[in-house]
Amino acid sequence: MSSTVGTATEIRPFNIDVPDDRLEDLRRRVAATRLPSKELVEDRSQGVQLATIRELAGYWATDYDWRKAEAKLNALPQFMTEIDGADVHFIHVRSQHEDALPLIMTHGWPGSVIELLETVAPLTDPTAHGGNAEDAFHLVLPSVPGYGFSAEPTELGWDSGRTALAWAELMRRLGYTRYVAQGGDVGAAVSDAMGRHEPEGLIGVHTNLFVPALGGEMPTETEQERAAVEQITVFRATGFGYFLEMATRPQTIGYALLDSPVALAAWMLDHDTDSYYKIASAFVDGQPVGNLTRDHILDNITAYWLTGTGASAARSYWESGQAQAKAAGQAPPPMTLPFGFTTFPGEIWRTPRSWVEKAYPNVMYFNEVERGGHFAAWEEPELFSEEMRAAFKSLR
Amino acid sequence: MSTVETATDIRQFQVEIPDEQLSDLRRRIAATRWPTTELVEDTSQGVQSKMLQELARYWATEYDWRKAEARLNALPQFMTAIDALDVHFIHVKSRHEDALPLIITHGWPGSVIELLDVVDPLTDPTAHGGSAEDAFHLVLPSIPGYGLSEQPSELGWDPGRVARAWAELMSRLGYDRYVAQGGDQGASITDAMARMAPDGLIGIHLNLLSSYPTDVGAALFGGLLPAGLFKRVAIAVLSARAEKKEPEALDAVAGLFRRGYIVEMPEHPQTIGYALNDTPVGMAAWMLDHDADSYEKIARAFLDGDPSGGLTRDHVLDNITLTWLTSTPTSSARLYWEQFRTIFAAIASGEKTPELSLPVAFTVFPGEIYKAPRSWAEKVYPNLIYFNEAERGGHFAAWEEPELFAEEMRAGFKALRNGSS
User: Fold this and answer.
1) d(Cα B65, Cα B59) in Å, to the nearest integer?
2) Which single residue of A137, A260, A289, A386 could bond A278 by disulfide (Cβ 3.0 to 4.6 Å)?
3) pTM, rounded to two decimals
């Protein structure tokens, strides 16, 4: 029994300590996997390849060590605080540079705060990572409700917009009165929603997934625009099943994601062609691309498994679908705050500057970089950090 | 081995699952790690926790696979290699010599299990309210990759190739004048058979309108596909067919394509395949999430002890358990991948769908995903000899309402008996 009563806005320190028996149970399940027969093709066209899953499962059940991931997380200041009825987990690293710019970065699906860990040092301690003291950020990395160590929503309505409101409250609670927000994937939707909501203190937004393209048709006047539309078309024609299933039947797929570690791994690896082949190469050829190593990939998958959040994370797509249906084609409120965007070349589609300028009237920054894909912060943390420095420079 | 089997050998077959496979299944079900309950009070987030937990409880404790095995083994079952692949089939000859041979093909997420209760009424009509002239000789094959047939180990087993294999099977059985029937994927295969018009096939009956004329689909390509390719193709094809006069049916088809399974299996059967092959409860959920009508009926069987017709707890689990024990959920999903690949290749090449001039009979069961209007059926099948809307039944018509389904077979094919074909 605790002798003190916590107030609703209390911020509690948090550490992860997964019991040994849960890790043994996981290894036992991975080892007992019933694999299907091999796909009948030599590429990704029927989905995640058996050779990739075999290597992943073999490594996961034997050599992989979750305790290293746990230690990495626990080496950072982690907290819990209840916002809007849900316990929110977040990492909060203050820079030694007092006038650093506060930055809240949101992960996506199939990600978690784990995809952002390698950016902590370059962003908060730039002088040790090729930058100046003026590049420093105070960093807040929350887990979206239903993902990782945040609590699962127990009621309907936790779409990106509600998460955005919770983040504004989190930043206010942390005492930040002038901050910026960033995200890719689901995190881009949350950051975009924050920008449109314009909470007090938020002064700018950067994303690395172009959210407006998910909502409707985009111009196709230039060659770059046509190329991007073609990429979106291919994605929708060949890689959309996971999206549609989670947006319409999160509970149905949720049973498999909770009960079979290998099912969860396959479902999470099947996100986009570029990241899939990079990850497959890490497992099958021992050739990771950037920071997308076997251990880092399994850290993220294992976090989903241990927290049992496969279904609750899928429900966030269902909520987005509901929100979209409710909006029924109505334009969202405009984003007038300064907006930055970086196109990473391996992203599902390469967003042209013209689209960014059309959707966001106040573009402060646009760049297309040389390397990186959908999981930009994870794959290329140094390059990603340089983009953060450059994008937000004008707001300091 | 003292004898050499010829390639066209027909071998007798019995199902015998080792005990350890059954105890492994029960162990896995009992060890299920459940997600939290859905956040809605209806089916809008998918298969409901309450229903699946009751299914799992019954499956792990009371359900007896040996009864299903005995039912299968009580029927004459065979294996024969066709097109380099072992095909499993049930073959029940009627005692009425001039019975009409009929090959019925199951669908997804089905198997021959969904057809077992039609065997008696179709082959022995005098004991089931019919006359000797209603009798059929019955052939019930398992689609390659489904249940007890072998899994394809090479590409190309689309509905057309299965249709060719069925024609070879009927010829091998010595039938030179026969009819074919199917719903769901069985309808795609039966439709393909009729377009191929192999020697001996004199007519077909369908209970799902599944044919997608590729010449209509070709008009749809180009530009952005905001609603997803498959959905757009299907809706536009059916719109063109219906000339937008059938809004209810169109909405129902659109609803079908709002389900993830119909997109995931044609896109990435292997990805979902890892899940389906490794978790019994995950596989059961995927198979039950087919259509609203059958889901509600099956949920009633488990939660209220009030099954609809033949969709009892045991029958539903017989089918799910067969899929688990044969490790075929992934290979069965690949049929969708093959099917869509063929459709898109035909669209890309501008190839026309072969004409279908054989007589076609069609029955609409009211709970089906969409109630195909007669006008649609006539458009796709100009030689429509029979059209009826039955009183009861849904997507799994033969399974749910075997007697009513058998009556539809009798009526649907009546015109093709004893006549000149």
Assistant:
1) 9
2) A289
3) 0.93
Give how far A265 is from chain B: nearest CA, Å: 9
Residue A73 and residue A17: Cα distance in Å, rounded?
10
CB nearest A318 (choices: B45, B151, B259): B45
What gap in Å lies between CA B391 and CA B222, rounded to an integer? 42
B residues 204-263 lying closer than 8 A (beta carbon) to A: 224-226, 228-229, 258-261, 263
- Nearest Cα neighbor of A101 from A194, A204, A207 is A204
Q: Is A245 on the interface with B (CB under 8 A)?
A: yes
Name residue B102's beta-bridge partners: B138, B179
Q: Is A185 annotated in the active site? A: yes
Nearest to B368 by CA among B387, B347, B392, B384: B392
Mean pLDDT of chain B: 88
Helix, coil or strand: residue B87: strand
Question: Residue B189 pLDDT more than 50?
Answer: yes
Q: Where are the beta strands (DSSP E) in B200-259?
A: 201-206
Contact assignment for A259 to B279 by CB distance below 8 Å: yes
- Chain A 30-59, residues with CB within 8 Å of chain B CB atoms: 33-37, 39-41, 46-50, 53
The count of other CB atoms within 10 Å of the CB of residue B281 is: 26
**Residue A317 designated active-site:** yes
Query: How remote is the C-alpha of B339 from its chain's centroid?
Result: 14
- Give pLDDT tens digits for A85-115: 999 999 999 999 999 999 999 999 999 999 9
Instruction: Say whether residue A270 is in contact with chain B using an 8 A CB cutoff.
Output: yes
Is A271 annotated in the active site? no
Q: How far apart are CA B76 and CA B114, in angstroms?
A: 17
Q: Which residues, 6+ apart, have CB-to-CB distance to A42 below 8 Å?
A: none
Contacts of A46 in chain B (CB under 8 A): 268-270, 334, 337
Which residues are B308's β-sheet partners?
Answer: B311
A110 at the B interface (CB within 8 A)?
A: no
> In sequence order, what are the residues at sequence separation of 6 or more whose Cβ sits closer than 8 angstroms to the Cβ of residue A317?
A109, A243, A246, A247, A250
Q: How many CB atoms lie within 10 A of CB A337?
A: 20
